[in-house]
Amino acid sequence: MKKAFFALIWLVLALALLARSEVTLDVKLNFFGPAEGEKGGPGVATSFYLKSLVQRNLQVAFSPQALLAELRKTFNAADVSLLASGDLRWRSGGSSSVTQVVQIDGRDYALILTPRPKPGAVNFKVGVVEERGKDSVKNVLLDTEIVLPDGEVAMLGFRDSREQNYFIALYIQGRDEAFGKDSVRLAAGKKPKLIKKVNPVYPDEAVKSRIQGVVVLEAVIDEMGKVQEIRTVTSAAPMLDKAATEALQQWEYAPFEMDGRCRRVMFTVTIRFRLDEKKKDAMGALARLEDSQKPKLIKKIDPTYPQAALEHKLEGVVVLEVKINELGKVTDMRDVSSTSPTLKQAAIEAVRQWEYEPYIVDGKAKPVVFTVTVTFALK
Hints:
By secondary structure, the protein is mainly beta. The chain has helices spanning 6-13, 64-74, 204-208, 238-248, 307-311, 341-351, and strands at 23-34, 54-58, 80-91, 98-104, 107-118, 121-132, 137-149, 153-159, 165-177, 184-185, 194-196, 213-221, 227-234, 252-253, 256-258, 261-263, 265-273, 287-288, 297-299, 316-324, 330-337, 355-356, 359-361, 364-366, 368-376. It folds into 3 domains: 2-177, no CATH class; 179-275, TolA/TonB C-terminal domain (2-Layer Sandwich); 276-379, TonB (TolA/TonB C-terminal domain, 2-Layer Sandwich), CATH 3.30.2420.10. It is 13% helix and 45% strand.
């Protein structure tokens, strides 16, 4: 039975990247298929069916009743029932994958998950291998990748050669993370004062290859304002991520005081790598500004915390790229990084109402582009 999943583990091993900090994930898994007693039962699967038939992230309670109701409503899957469930635990630094084996009508179905945690979400490599018959014939039924934000449920479906439907539901029911432990997450507007900044060195290879982009990092500083931990939230390219991290390690901040004492805090830092600064960018603005160059915000509307996110205790960071016109009005936006579509939409609805002082260059107001970070944190 163990042999059933060895082949797929080798397939996903090359893509399995471990988190840089210690992370423990508790994953709840449900496996749905043809209801017991259905005519024909589970069919013979073949290696022809290699990709997910359906995939969707849902904000529903993770219970068999709620999930079955969602399957019937969203996927029109009326004739399925819960075949198996499991609680899986994955730790960074250990095995790259966790597995759950389901036995149906003499066949073993090995469900294999390879997580890659990131702030507010987990990237999963998901595979299903079937072993059947006396000769232990192995077939790969599912081999795909998904992004599962914290607080949401991922539902993946696949089909066997008899047109029988199966569904896997995944939910992150617990996350124990060493990064930023015992620190306070700060909103974008409450960052500590930067007192020493070292600009990143643009890698020669990136210049030659004309590689540009935005790197969003999450940093933890101690009570003295020293940077202690860094991780990447949004990657531009590995070489740019490395350059940004090496620069940020040298930054220093004023100690952050809260309730009368200096605290260990966590916040996001955006570092931009760009070439040909004088050319207009894709959003049509003449200048793309660093955080320290942003115009003064004169009207701010706080985002409304989505009710669904509150119910699921969903936190996260949304980074937007914003364009303002000569009057300081927000005219365009694009998503740079977000941990949840729900939080992203709430951030966009708020930021589009913000107003800034006009950005003046050589005595004239100019349209400019800069990044805005919106943090959703439960109190």
